[in-house]
Automatic annotation (TrEMBL):
The keyword Translocase does not apply. This is Maternal effect embryo arrest 60. Signal peptide: none annotated. The keyword Membrane applies. PANTHER family: MATERNAL EFFECT EMBRYO ARREST PROTEIN, OS07G0240400 PROTEIN. Coiled coil: none annotated. One of its GO terms (biological process) is embryo development ending in seed dormancy. Keywords: Membrane, Transmembrane, Transmembrane helix. The chain crosses the membrane at residues 64-84, 116-137, 157-180.
């Protein structure tokens, strides 16, 4: 026997998921802006004692570039998520026959469009996290010494970052792909 209202909370679940994407992206965007306010060329910001470990200007340039790429990705992801929320809210009030494939109590939404939108938004968030991770690698090199220098402090800061963040991104991507196929 089928559940009496299998999609009763469908719209609110989707809107809550989209809210979650935009909230997390907002927190990461705040981190990006805080990172952009930091002056990497300020000598007081460095803990480097060996002059051969000082980073070159290319690392500071990469730091800024990765922050900008990260911001762009998070903004892209959030705008897609906000657009999907608007589509759900507009479809709720329209009765448009083109949205007949996925019916909720409150609205009708094309399931394929919703899935692709979630996937695109998730890819934007994944890219933003990857770029933010690379920016943090550059921050560690600026504050603790370059990776090529062989500083143990730099490696102890960067290695967990390069292990934990990609693992979390793989788990997130797995859940997104699982949700996409269901």
């Amino acid at each position: 026997m089928e559940h009496p209202n299998p999609t009763r909370f469908g719209t609110s679940i989707h809107i809550t998921a989209l809210d979650g994407i935009t909230n997390v992206n907002s927190l990461f965007t705040l981190a990006v802006f805080i990172g952009l306010t930091w002056n990497p060329s300020d000598p007081n910001n460095s803990l480097i004692s060996d002059p051969k470990c000082f980073p070159g200007p290319d690392i500071a340039e990469n730091l800024i570039a990765f922050h900008v790429y990260s911001f762009s990705s998070f903004l892209f992801s959030s705008l897609i998520a906000l657009g999907l929320k608007q589509v759900i809210r507009i479809a709720r009030n329209s009765g448009d026959p083109h949205w007949h494939l996925f019916t909720f109590d409150m609205c009708r939404v094309n399931k394929s469009v919703l899935r692709v939108g979630y996937l695109v938004s998730a890819v934007g968030s994944l890219c933003g996290c990857g770029f933010l991770m690379m920016a943090l690698v550059n921050v560690a090199q600026i504050k603790l010494g370059t990776l090529s220098c062989g500083s143990g402090d730099t490696y102890s800061a960067v290695v967990p970052l390069l292990i934990l963040v990609p693992c979390a991104l793989v788990i997130y991507a797995s859940f997104v792909l699982y949700a996409f196929t269901q």
